[in-house]
Amino acid sequence: MNVPLIIEGKQPLSGEIEVSPAKNAVLPVMVASLLTKEPVTIENVPRLRDIEVLLDLLAHLGTRYAWEGRSLHLHTPEILRTDAPYELVSKMRASFIVLGALLARTGEGSVSMPGGCAFGPRPVDLHVKALRKIGAEVNEEGGTFFARRARAFRGRVVFDIPTVGGTEQVMLATALGDGEVTIVNAAQEPEVEDLGRFLTMLGATVVGAGTSQVYIRGARALGGGRHRVIPDRIEAGTYLLAAAATRGRVTLQNANPHHLDALLDKLAESGHRILFGQDWIQLEATAEPRPFNLEAREYPGFPTDLQPVATAYLATVPGVSLVSDRVYPDRFTHVGELARMGAELSLKDHVLAVRGHKLHGAEVRAFDIRAGGALVVAALAAEGESVIAGTEHLERGYEALEAKLRALGARTRRAEPLVQDAAD
Ligand code: UD1
Fold first, then answer.
1. Domain limits for position 340
2. Ligand 1 centroid vs 230 CA: distance in angstroms?
3. Is 94 in contact with 27 (CB distance < 8 Å)?
4. Are residues 267 and 326 both part of a single domain?
5. 117 assigned to active site
6. Does residue 163 line the site of ligand 1, with CB under 6 A?
7. How far apart are CA 265 and CA 189, in angstroms?
8. Torsion angle defined by CA atoms of residues 341, 24, 94 and 170, in that order, rounded to the nearest 10 degrees
9. Which of 146, 240, 371, 403 suits 125 as a labelling partner, its CA being 20 to 30 A distant?
C-alpha cells in the first residue's frame, strides 16, 4: 500500500525484535530452484514485495509454488518459457540472474535489461563478459539479452570488480551440467556463501563461496531439499543504527554479528556499547556519540546498502563525519530528503560531509529501499512528526517494519488514504 508512513520522533527505541531472513539471500536461492526438477523448500521466507515480484517471474518460466506459513515450496518439473520479459524484470535488478539458471537448465535464455533501485548506473556488462568467457554466446537487441550455451561452461572468470550478482550468475550457470569454472575476484558477501551452501545441498560442487575465489563443478542432475537462509544483515544494521540515532537500547535476535563486523566496529568507535552472542546483538547507546568517517565498499567492508542509513545516524551526531561510497559513488538520493529534516550535508567530489545536530520532522519521500531506511532512522530521531512518502520502496525490503518499530516503542501510524468523493 502506497500510503505515507507517519513517525513521531524523539522516542528512544527500546526492546527486542527478531531479524528477518535476508531478502538478498532468498532471491538467488529462489532462482537456483530453477536448476532442478525436484521440489525445493525455502524455510522462513520474508513476506516482501521483491519476493512476490520474483515469484511472478518464476511462475512465468514454469515454477509451481505454494506457501505453507513462512515456508515457500518451489517446484519446476520443466521450464515452460526461456524468456524473462521487461514487465517482470524491470521491477527488480536481482532478476537478471535467471539468465544463468536458464542457460544451465535449457541451454538458452533471454532476459530484458534489469531495473531496480535508481541510484546511479548499475550495468550488467560484467555478467555478460563472464558468461561469454565461460562459453555462452550473448547478444543484445532492443534492450534484451539473448544467450545460448555454445559448449560446456569451462574456464576462469576474473572479475574487474567483485560483483555480487555477477558471481551468482556464473555459479548458477555452472552448477548444472558438465561445466567447471573458477571465479577469481569473486564477491565475498554472505549471500553468495549462502547460495553456495544451497547449490552444494542440491548436489553441485562449490568450493570457496564467500571467499574471493570460487570453484564450481556442475552435476548432471541436481536434487531437491530444504534450505534456511541467513539473517538479513542490512535489516539488522538498520535497527542498530535506529537504536543509536534515538539513543536507545535494542536487542536483535536471529542476527549474525560476524556479518556486521564493519558496522559494529563503527558503532563502537562512536561510543555505543555493543554486546553479542552467536545469534544476537545488543546495542546500548551512549548519550554523547562521536562522529566517524565511512567509505562503503564490498564485503567485508562497510556495506553500501547501509551507507544511507548510517548517514542518517551521523546527521544526529555532533561534529563532522565524511561519507563516501566506492560501490555506488552516486548513491546519495537520501541527501536532499535528509536536508528537509534539518540535516546539514554538503556533497563535493563524491564525498558527503555530514555536520550532525538535532533533526526536526518533515514531509519526505523515499526514492529507493535503503534511502527509505535512512528516512525512517532520521524520523525516529527527529523532534516532531515526519511523513514519509514512497513507502512502496520500504515494502520491497523491510518486513513488518511498522510492527517491529512499534515493538521497540516507536510511535508510527499510516496517513489516511485519500477518499475519492463518489459523486465526482
Ligand atoms: C547486490 C545487492 C545490492 C547491493 C549490491 C552491492 C542483491 C539482490 N542486491 O546488487 O543490494 O547494493 O550487491 O553490495 O543482492 N557492476 C558493473 N557491471 C556489472 C555488475 C556490477 O559495473 O555487470 C558494478 C556496479 O555498478 C557496482 C559494483 O559492480 O558498482 C557492485 O555491484 P554488484 O555487486 O553487482 O551489485 P548487485 O549484485 O546488483
1. 5-20+231-414
2. 19
3. yes
4. yes
5. yes
6. yes
7. 18
8. 140
9. 371
How far apart are the C-alpha atoms of 365 and 334, rounded to whole Å? Answer: 9
* pTM, 2 dp: 0.96
Number of folded domains that form the chain: 2
Q: Closest residue (by CA) to atom 38 of ligand 1?
A: 165
* Closest C-alpha to 58, from 70, 46, 72, 71: 72
**Do 76 and 154 belong together in one domain?**
yes
Element (H, E) at 249: strand 249-253
Quick check: 231 and 254 in contact, CB under 8 A? yes
Cell numbers standing for residue 146: 539473448
Question: Ligand 1: which atom is nearest the Cα of residue 299?
Answer: 14
Between the CA of 274 and the centroid of ligand 1 the distance, in Å, is 30
Tell whether 370 and 296 lie within a shared domain: yes
Gap between the Cα atoms of 103 and 18, Å rounded = 38
CB 226 within 8 A of CB 43: yes
How far is residue 33's CA from residue 311's CA, in Å, rounded to a whole number? 37
From first to last of its 424 residues, the chain has per-residue pLDDT tens of 689 999 999 999 999 999 999 999 999 999 999 999 999 999 999 999 999 999 999 999 999 999 999 999 999 999 999 999 898 888 888 999 999 999 999 999 999 987 655 556 668 999 999 999 999 999 999 889 999 999 999 999 999 999 999 999 999 999 999 999 999 999 999 999 999 999 999 999 999 999 999 999 999 999 999 999 999 999 999 999 999 999 999 999 999 999 999 999 999 999 999 999 999 999 999 999 999 999 999 999 999 999 999 999 999 999 999 999 999 999 999 999 999 999 999 999 999 999 999 999 999 999 999 999 999 999 999 999 999 999 999 999 999 999 999 999 999 999 876 554 443 4
Q: Tell me the CA–centroid distance for residue 331 and ligand 1, in Å.
A: 12
